[in-house]
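Morning F.,

Quick status update on the modeling queue. The single chain you submitted on Monday has been processed. Sequence for confirmation:
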Amino acid sequence: MAAMEEQKNRIRELTELLNRAARAYEQEDREIMSNLEYDRLYDELKALEEQTGIVMSDSPTMRAGYEVLSELPKMRHESPMLSLDKTKEVETLKEWLGAKEGLLSWKMDGLTIVLTYRDGKLAQAVTRGNGEVGEIITNNARVFKNIPLSIPFQGELILRGEAVIKYSDFEKINAEIEDIDAKYKNPRNLCSGSVRQLNNELTAKRNVHFFAFTLVKAQAGGTGRGKLQENDADGQMTFGLVTEETAGAGFVTRSEQMKWLQSQGFEIVEGKLVTAENIEETVEWFAGRIEQNDFPSDGLVLTYNDIAYGESLGRTAKFPRHSIAFKWRDELRETTLLDVEWSPSRTGLINPVAVFEPVELEGTSVSRASLHNISIMEGLQLGIGDRVTVYKANMIIPQIADNLTRSGMCPIPDKCPVCGFQTRIREENDTKTLYCVNEECPAKKIKQFAHFVSRDAMNIEGLSEATLEKLIDRRMLTELADLFHLECYREQIVQMEGFGEKSYANLQMSIAKAREVSVGKFVYSLGILNIGLANAKLICRHFGNDLAAVRMAGREELMEIEGIGEVIADSMVSFFAGRENSRIVDDLLKEVHFVQEESTGEKLAGKTFVITGSVEHFANRAELKERIESEGGKVTGSVTAKTTYLINNDNMSNSTKNKKAKELGVAVITEEELLKMLE
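Structure tokens below.
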């Protein structure tokens, strides 16, 4: 009985831990454990469930996904999108395939998308979501690099595929991001964010590619060119196209389906026909291609080529039986941990990096791996000199798999490696991270300057964080006002890498333009804690755009402004009370001239708006917000009893904000209705 109770407790523990890890990875784009560790714990849970017969209601072995959290409109899939059962053994693939022929293809590591075409035109694109409900991303899919907007087939066509960002594009995008905290951890996270953007201009810049892997349905319209043949009652990837040329036969095999999709203009996931006799060498062929691939993959998928046979097998509660996933058996190497380096970022976050004796992994020498955060280090109980196992996640990214000796935690530095000041451990969402608390830390100083020159602040172009770092290191910049006197260093700047006479001239023009600024943008540019652009403008407008009055305002006076609470008021008072901050502002006032914010009127004065969903008549939500504020309106982030209008072009959406607006009796309007108010 005691053993049984212990197993039940372990099942509950693993269920909670794996769900937490999946939520962090899928919803919050962060990692609290390695892929290898997740798979190990998942397999342990599955074995315990089979052994005891106990499966918790929220077990990850029974769930296909998690609820989507974005503000994109949602829709329910006609049939559930199930995940696949998996194995790491080639022998299991052989046994599973038996005497049948299979189609073996890449398991791409991106975001699964369902596309619907009607009468030859792309009509709808929906993410997998949680398997039951997905997000509508049609507007974004139209700007994927390789999706055909028109196809020859007339009628209704539904297919599934994977949206991915190639490694080459991933590296280019990350290379342009100077702040280490802002860099994307992997192509999948970048792809997820790119596909689910509310403004498809950004999606277009990310070079998202789509690779088809399943034909779901092909039903010809009234042209007489074909009819629909259903191969299975539950609608799971079951439809074959019956043309006049193949009357009555339809698609018999998956490989035929894929060739037909290719003929319609789709790029398809690469696959090879296999039998039990040649599957082992085919798996090796795929493995040999990984290093050369420009797209991320985390394994292979084996599907019965005979459609009717595969569908006749039905499905379990979680898995269809016509396919199985093969995950690479990670190549593990044992080595010795030599050190943990602490790499400071420009936001104050200090990242741990494991340094170990070099080992050969997947054909390359590896000696470093990110540990991500203190929580992962604690879980591994790392100590210098410990014997650790390392691997490459998806055969690409070095990771620590396990610590064999577990001598204890490596010391966490109490001093910042850049400035030598005190560090502090912060804990958010069950994850511990290390920060430098010195506001004058050079790493943080770069962030202060970067914020000041950003587009929504002073909008000084030509000063990336890398350039600012060079100027700070060479003592050309010590405080913000120095930005307006870079002409003193003209000779040095034009000699800097990436600069020249033209770049220098453009920079000086941008600095000259920045000398004329609105009071609201100026206050925002100071980087006051908790003060965004909207709040800065709101406060300044309340005081008639008189900066002197803003600087002298007391806590109670600020809190009288609708929408300004204790936190914001305290931040404002505390900032302007600081002697050093006052000196910085005084020096800046010698360099700038205040101009009135452009305003077209007060048509929205006294009205409070919340914006949700995608926009159609503006470049993005920021532009819509700026227009509302220019007309005297106010934009907040959440719907309350004080909200006048919720702007949502899909006013029938079941989003949280729409539901809240209906509960409170807040009117839901579209952009067009707002524009009519402004006419």
